[in-house]
Amino acid sequence: MTYMFQRPHYIEIELPSDIKTRFPQYGLYVYGEGVYSIQLYKGVFKGIPVLFIPGNGGSHKQVRSLASVAYRKSLDEKEEREEKKSSDLKEKSPDLKGKEKSPDLKGEKGGEKSPDLKGKDGEKSPDSKGKGEREESPDSNGDEKSPDLNYDYESPDLHFNFFSVDINGELGALYGPVLERQTEFVTIAIRRILELYDDDNGIGNTDGSGDGNDGSGDGNSGDGSGKNGIGNTVGKSKVKPESVILIGHSMGGMVGRAVYSHRGGGNNGSTITPTMVPLIITQATPHTRPVIVLDQHLDDFYDKVNAYWIMERDYELRDVVLVTVGGGRNDIQVPTTRTNTHLADISTTTADVPFCWLTADHQAIVWCRQLVLATVRGLFDVIDTNTNQLSTNRTKIVDVFKYHLATRVSGKRYDHHRYPDTVPIEKDARWAEITRRQHTHTHAQHTHTRTYLHTALHPGNSLYQHLTIVGIGLETKNWVLACIANNNNNNNNNDNNDKRICKSAVNLSHHTKKLPGKFKMLELDMEQLEKDGYTHILVNIPPTDDMVEVWIDIHSDGGRARKVNLPAFIRSFTPMLVEDATPLQAATYNVTLNGLGDLWQSYQVTVKPRNKCVPAVNSVSPPPAAILHLPWAIQSHSFLYSSGHTGLTYMIELDVPPYTSHTTPSIKFILNPQCTYTIIIQSSLIGVFRRIVLLYGPQVPTYITVHLLLTLSKQLKSVGESGACMSFFHSLFTLTPLAVVPFVKITNLILRNMDIMDDFTIL
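That's the GPI inositol-deacylase sequence above. Prediction below.
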């Protein structure tokens, strides 16, 4: 959950009178918080524009979570830059030490200092005890609707203006005609937002300076008459925004995608180009098909939007970045089969977002704090610092969001995640040779010496083909290295004499996969490393006050894998033994599931320890985890979750249909090497029923209606022929699928060819 630190303000943007007449039920708002809202009430917009589009029955106020967290982060960025600037001044001018002070952002002007936005992965929660940080805006008499506009406030150099459209809570998922109207209004809103950032509106430099570096510009270049967006102005901008970032929830994501194909009349309804909207982020949006089709207009809307994207994805829309995030298993309204689309550059679920790891229901995905943090960090990282606007480098935008939503291991900034090619080796470090193929290393707390665990590659040995390393509590980024070892007898530590150690090492840490909790995993092909000329693998453990544990598991090709042919439908409900006992001290075990290819299938996989699994003293080993691998999916890995420690049960279901019959899904277990496990699989009756309802439930009302109509026709026919009305159940039981299905198909074909008018056209 996300929290505000100041009062929220939803400030209405003035629209032309003809637009208000055409769309009296719609509105455009900008989010402000505390003192920051003062600029917005004055009509001063100096941030990067983002437009939030609510979904089915949604509210424009749902923008709050993203906007509030982004505002706090902009204050963090401002504070960091000013502290760095102050530090640089002290270094350049030693005489000023003790005299130069970094700005106190908790002073009289509303106290803009924000928390670190840190969470369980080293991040402080916004609701943490920071009483001095929860400041009130200087509102008159506490009235949040009328802040003191004479209060002088300067926004951070780099921040976002979050706009939101009010669609009157319309049920776009149930009534298709409103989607076209919403799309038309959103295209108008995008153009209106860009109009707010004219050359006289003071975007860009916050010091009031004009063009150039001489500071000759006037800091107040307008008298500011008007209302909400046509107000006072503050200086001129080097770069005027030419694009708007769209974030859509539920059906709002489809409306966002539809702006490119919408053709309206006049200047207000003209087409939106990819340069105007180069980035779309959708949350729990059904992209492939509507969840339920209650009218032809909804079906036509989807056909038009998806057909346009398919035709133009490699042409007109080639520069548009589409990011889709689904809620996963807990979102029973929009399943992952609908949120996952191959038209997207990144398609994932909240359960697979690093440091989020959990599924979210259809509404919670909007305010899920871990997802909001990842999204906001991505937005800040795709900004070009030279222009303070969205980067025009499409590849960078994709890489940034792939990092934050899929591959992040450590580091909250994309620019900080890069791994150096080589890592220097400390001369006085402690070296520990690992001679066994399976080894668990427990690093004591409060260790002040760097330790290198090293193991040889053993060329030609068939038992040394694959290496799995799992690190728990190991915070360093550059933790697995490869090197060419040599004898070093000049080290100061006597216990290092005559041991093979390295003077330099190549970094292999970019292969790391972050797993839920405090552990991460890396898998290596030892034969390939041998061909590349390396002799040893190193695990780098820096000095730390925390408990650290490292699992090393070396095995042959296929030594940690098993293929299983899943039984037929009826026999699948009987428990099937996959593995009686996993190999001793195995860190991972992979099971390929032949026969898992239908969306209605649901299996329970139970992992039971065969012994007590007594952990070592002070062990930090987590319980087993599981990863489902779908070779055909965009985000091919999906984490599975369970609870308990004596026997864990994982549910395996396909959320993405297979696109080829030549690939099979598999499940990888990360096991505690101190235990051996029995693996059992069987179909879940409840799970199968749940999948059938999820997949085919929306069709049930249609078939019920058809059966009722046919039953009624049977009764009327009986009255006409015999003068007696046949009972309801007798009429119902005389129906056959052969009579129902053709009737439905023929009716569907007739309706598709009819010119159907929506209510708005009729009115």
